[in-house]
Amino acid sequence: MGEQRSLTPQQIETIEAAYKEGIEEVDRQDEEHVLAKEPKAREKAEKLIRQKGNLMLMGRQVLLLYGMLRDGWSKSYPVSSKTAAAITGALLYFLNPFDIVPDFIPVIGYLDDVVVMGACLRLIHADLRAYALWKGLSLSDYGL
Length: 144
Description:
mainly alpha; 0% strand
């Protein structure tokens, strides 16, 4: 039997729906948990940045989301509760090694993480662009 290299449209729909449902339950404790796990996520994201293509871009996006959440938490940048929930949900998923496609499977293990990150970025696109510009970052470096 061949190895699956992509997700079916149904799998993508299921992952996106679970993500959107999950962010409805995100609270301040979840944000705190995600921020406490930043060193672990940063290490994982930096490994992705050393890759090429979508994985490199996703690694950069994870770091940008962390920056926005951290700046919102410290009140140095205004982040709405809806945006904070979307970021927290995506980062919780990114941190979970036992998601739908386990991350330890080379390359394909990140397919579901890419789907969740994409759903998050679609939800908060304008806010994330504004934040990146506020930070003086190049939008193209983050796929924005």
